[in-house]
């Protein structure tokens, strides 16, 4: 059996039986930086088969014993310069010394998110220089499949695992083959669920409004009183390097300021079946999934957490439609549809023109996406109905893969960690 040892500062002397009962390393602290237990440790919540496989092959030890090489796990709520800078203060001198002397490995686990700030690598190298810790004794884990992977930087498909387990544990949340075989014409063309009105989602909604497409589908959008100002006074961030439509000429041609203002005044947009999903409660994203809502439309429009970023964060929104027999258009960074295929699913080409997925210019990509949505919505109901059922084999393949497979991204990860300390 392979042993993985995790050192915890505030471990109870008599040990603990569940990682959620552990006080996270670097917490509490007076620096205003939050660390938690966000899912690195495999429990029954990651699927009983996954848990049993890990339990059979690995011995997970929570310890305050530093006599054997160990991992010091930190799970920050965000990944920014202040987090890295804080570690020299928040980690004890003894543990830092162990890392320096190749007796411990710092494991920064950020699998619940996919973003990283532009100075991330510079900040990590500075941390190593300041502490004389080898870069080989630092591991970074992320949900971002586009990150440059090394023996110390891993991508963990955290949300694919959780969405699979959510469907397997809640049979009323995924769609049934009987519903796919229902040949009734659906009342709507598309479904687009958006809780947080991020800038690229507002631009998308504004362009759909401009093209008279909002009435063709169901779109939800939270209310953001500052939304219009985010576009008027755009400031580049790690979540969007440019506003999705950035050239003055194109903004004027599309009359985008007027349409954004008009769209903002329409918000919040609600879908009767999913009013609760707009509440600011992140747990609802996992459990409030209504097959009956998906069965009213032919395809989904999935707007990710960012649009113009080098990183990709395929969270639960990305995977949900696959359990609903829904093809989808990805409104996010490049590479989303390629990642779908890399994970053994089928994309929706040629039924959907997915050339947008490789277009790096965010303005061109947004307009390509809107043009494809427009093309589909310009079909009559007979045509869109036939279009949908012509890709039935793709829809069934994806449904089976997410509902029936046991996706275990942690097994390979644990093996990689074991190899680092042995």
Question: What features would you describe in this structure?
Answer:
- This protein has 422 residues and is of the alpha/beta class.
- Helix content is 38%, strand content 11%.
- The protein contains 18 helices and 10 strands.
- The chain has helices at 48-57, 81-90, 93-100, 120-131, 158-169, 177-180, 199-210, 227-232, 248-254, 256-266, 284-287, 291-294, 316-319, 336-342, 362-377, 381-389, 392-404, 409-420; strands at residues 2-7, 58-63, 70-74, 104-110, 138-142, 153-155, 190-192, 218-219, 299-303, 328-331.
- It has a 6-stranded parallel β-sheet with strand order 2-1-3-4-5-6.
- α7 (199-210) packs across α10.
- The longest helix is centred in the C-terminal third of the chain and has 16 residues, at 362-377.
- The protein is globular and about 70 Å long.
- The two termini are 13 Å apart.
- Mean pLDDT is 89; it is low at 277-283.
């Amino acid at each position: 059996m392979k042993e993985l040892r995790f050192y915890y500062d505030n471990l109870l002397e008599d040990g603990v039986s569940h990682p959620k009962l552990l006080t996270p390393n670097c917490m509490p602290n007076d620096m205003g930086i939050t660390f938690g237990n966000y899912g690195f440790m495999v429990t029954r919540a990651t699927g009983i088969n996954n848990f049993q496989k890990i339990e059979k092959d690995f011995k997970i030890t929570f310890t305050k014993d530093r006599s054997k090489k160990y991992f010091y796990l930190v799970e920050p709520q965000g990944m920014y310069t202040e987090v890295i800078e804080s570690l020299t203060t928040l980690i004890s001198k003894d543990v830092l010394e162990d890392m320096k002397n190749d007796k411990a490995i710092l494991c920064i686990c950020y699998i619940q998110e996919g973003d990283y700030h532009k100075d991330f690598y510079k900040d990590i190298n500075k941390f190593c220089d300041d502490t004389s810790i080898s870069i080989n004794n630092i591991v970074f884990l992320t949900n971002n499949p586009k990150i440059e992977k090394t023996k110390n930087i891993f991508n963990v498909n955290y949300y694919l695992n959780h969405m699979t387990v959510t469907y397997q544990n809640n049979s009323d949340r995924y769609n049934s083959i009987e519903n796919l075989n229902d040949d009734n014409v659906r009342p709507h063309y598309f479904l687009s669920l958006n809780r947080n009105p991020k800038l690229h989602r507002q631009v998308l909604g504004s362009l759909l409004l401009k093209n008279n497409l909002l009435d063709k589908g169901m779109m939800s959008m939270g209310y953001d009183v500052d939304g219009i100002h985010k576009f008027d006074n755009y400031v580049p961030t790690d979540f969007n390097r440019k506003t999705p439509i950035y050239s003055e000429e194109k903004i004027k041609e599309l009359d985008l300021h007027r349409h954004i203002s008009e769209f903002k005044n329409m918000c919040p947009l609600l879908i009767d079946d999913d009013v609760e999903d707009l509440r600011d409660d992140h747990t609802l994203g996992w459990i409030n999934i209504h097959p009956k809502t998906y069965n009213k439309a032919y395809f989904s429009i999935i707007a990710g957490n960012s649009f113009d970023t080098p990183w990709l964060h395929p969270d639960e929104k990305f995977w949900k439609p696959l359990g609903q027999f829904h093809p989808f258009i990805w409104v996010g960074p490049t590479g989303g549809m390629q990642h779908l295929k890399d994970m053994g699913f089928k994309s929706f080409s040629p039924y959907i023109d997915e050339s947008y997925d490789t277009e790096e210019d965010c303005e061109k990509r947004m307009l390509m996406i809107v043009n494809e949505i427009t093309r589909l919505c310009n079909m009559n109901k007979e045509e869109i109905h036939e279009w949908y059922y012509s890709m039935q084999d793709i829809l069934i393949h994806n449904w089976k893969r997410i509902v029936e497979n046991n996706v275990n991204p942690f097994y390979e990860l644990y093996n990689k960690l074991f190899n680092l300390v042995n």
